[in-house]
Amino acid sequence: MKERIDQIRREIENYQPENKEQVEEFRIKYLSKKGIIPQLFTEFKNVPKEERKELGKLMNELKNDAQQKFNDLKASFEAAEKKDQQKQDLTLPAYFQEVGARHPINILRNEITEIFKSIGFQVNEGPEIEDDWHNFTALNFPPEHPARDMQDTFFVDSGSKVAKESDQIALRTHTSSVQIRVMENQKPPIRSIFPGRVYRNEAISARAHCMFHQVEGLYVDKGVSFADLKQTMLYFSKEMFGKDTRLRFRPSYFPFTEPSAELDISCFICGGKGCNICKYTGFVEILGCGMVDPNVLENCGIDSKKYAGFAFGMGIERIGLLKYQINDLRLFFENDMRFLKQFESAV
Ligand code: DAH
Q: What confidence tens digit (pLDDT) does each residue in 83-112 have?
């Protein structure tokens, strides 16, 4: 036992920790409850009486020396650490933390949403992967109808071979699909907008992208007329583009609205006098709209004799290009910090 005590003593004397963690390891190894020294004390019980006095003294010395070494080492590492901290130059400028900001598409989406919320519209969302019924058929696009070609669709391979066009799954080509989902699940009056991402199989250019964002709107109630659509669009346009904005509705065609129209607003850059942005016409196109086709209401179980509705759909990127006078749509998706930083201060 005496030899063991000597050996431990030598070990302790030679122990050279390099950091605070190793000092702690030292404590655990030799001094903690299950450490080597307390272990020796447990074994002391078996020592023959004659040897106890001498060994007891040696063990106590060992324990005290180990404790002393630990205290000294701990104090010296702590002092060194303190000195290091004092060496830090507090006059150095602080690290600059970049603050995140909203993407311009989200800023616009929030702006549009807030305007419609302020006049009682709710917000709904639907899935980006859609079935044929919600994206086309219920919206009055009959199978094989050429109007389906207006929207270059990305079909999704569902794994099973589908014989009919009407069983196909696709990335939604417009947020009009959410109209159907909402009308299938809610009873009129319905006053809601549907922001979201849409996909079209188009070559990417300054004016077109295979993925972009839309906000769709729908109002269904008894006695809704084109006058309600006009007034809602006027309110939105003035809030979004300025109080002097004037509107122009041009007849158009969409399978799900009858009559259908394209909405132009007076150019907010030149006030209608003619400039680069409006290509010297005084007006710029911002969205498509119309009165919900009775077939669409019926497809969703809404009595078209009792109820009428209007709908509209706009591209968020298109609104952004106009509002911020951006000449290339691709900028929205490239995540170039020089572009994105220009919107940091906007909410
Ligand atoms: N879904 C159309 C598109 O993507 C936009 C649109 C036009 C939506 C007229 C409507 C509408 O609700 O009434 O081009």
A: 888 888 888 888 888 777 899 999 999 999
